[in-house]
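S1.2 Input.
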Amino acid sequence: MKNGVNIFTAIIVIIVGLYDLSYAYNRRHQPTNKAGLRAFTILGVIFTVGGIVMLIMKLCNFI
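S1.3 Output.
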């Protein structure tokens, strides 16, 4: 039995990434609180892409 990424972990990482992207998207027109907008966008992209890669690797039995 191989130890690897759980499928639920990959799904949670995708959800967190999509939440970060939606937070950045919804805050883009507000004049205040623009300091973390780029950070939330970058983290959202990293988490979403990483979660999709983990999910694909799990479904193809690479891990």
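S1.4 Remarks. The mean pLDDT is 86.
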